[in-house]
Amino acid sequence: MKPGRIISAIAALLMLAWTASAAPDVYDGIVEITPRVYDFGDVSVDAGPLSCSFTVKNISEGAVAILQVGKTCGCTEVSWTREPLRSGESGKINVTYSNEDGPMPFEKSLNVYISGVSHPIILKIRGVVHEKKKPLAEVYPVRRGAMGLKSDSLFVGNLEQGRTISQSAKIANLSKSPLKLSFTDTDPHVKISSDPATIPPGVTATLTVSVASDRALWGRNVYTAVPVVNGKAGEPLRFYAVTKENFSTWTDAERGKGSVPMFEGSTVEFGKVKKGGILTLSFKYTNKGKSAFHIYKTDSDFPVLEVDAPDTKAAEKGLVTVRMDSSKIGTGIVTLRFTLITNSPLRPVITLFAAGEILP
């Protein structure tokens, strides 16, 4: 497997290992919904149908209504509050998963349409179905003292500027005594809590993490917090979020005046390069928009020495130049991936690739 694909696969596993948003997510200043993702956790085939509910609260000044909830699978049944919600009132979206697909992970989506919200809201239910119930120590193999986790890394999600995003995960008390959990040395952008804070023996709890945006931080960033289990600090937990520009308040006219970068292909071939030299990659584009194109940040799967990406005025050509130390890249045929976080309403996130061979 190519190095880039290995990293992508690891990232995907981390995303699956932590699940279920629990803090409210706000949509267009109209409603907040709790949770965004509901995680049933690890269940057995004989558990029968699984039910949950999402709370929709009207935070606007006028009345709103849940117009429609579309499901993507016949294995789910949905119902919702039909009456309009006045300012400050809450309604419910109730979901039941049949749990008839056998032992396997599942993830199902709901498309929710709410009056006043400009786009459908996507909610999810998730879980892992086993043939029979497994011991907690097997389900939660990562240890922090008596606390068990599925992973010590959490992908919180894609975060827009001016907003906060939340994600939660199940944790377990693997001991025979109550577990008291708190946190120290927490990143200032992070809020983290356990429900309950004192976990009975042999019982699971919900760990909820919220990450706030910061205009000094763009693209992929890592945040940390140190768990304190029964008074003893352990190794830090890591939280990942990808921050991009927030265009939700822009009018159609403002979007039409934005930058529009058009690259000359998404992949650059660099041929054969001997390991140890400096690899210089150049991506050409033309800004076909009506305002200057700006790149907030360039992320890569591999260590980058330098990125040169000056702003480009409307109708002008631009160049993104990336310099890398090939000694930090494995030998053989490789595909390098770069993600640009930009100010373009049409292309806020752009993925580019460089392909070639690193010789020993």
What does this structure look like?
It contains three helices and 28 strands. With 360 residues, it is mainly beta. Strands 12, 14, 16, 18, 19 and 20 form a six-stranded mixed β-sheet that branches. A five-stranded antiparallel β-sheet has the order 1-2-4-7-6, with no helix packed on it. A five-stranded antiparallel β-sheet has the order 10-11-13-17-15. A hairpin with an 8-residue loop joins strand 25 (306-308) and strand 26. The longest helix has 15 residues, at 3-17. It is globular and about 60 Å long. It starts with a helix and ends with a strand. The model is unreliable at 1-23 (pLDDT under 50).
Short description:
With 360 residues, the chain is mostly beta strands. 7% of the residues lie in helices and 53% in strands.
Summarize the amount of helix as a percent range: under 10%
What is the structural class?
Answer: mainly beta
Question: Radius of gyration over alpha carbons?
Answer: 23 Å
Number of strands: 28
The outline comes out as globular
Low-pLDDT segments, ≥5 res: 1-23
* SS element count, helices: 3
**Main sheet specs:** 6 strands, mixed
What percent of residues are in strands? over 45%
> If you average the pLDDT, what whole number results?
90
Q: Could you give the distance between the termini?
A: 18 Å
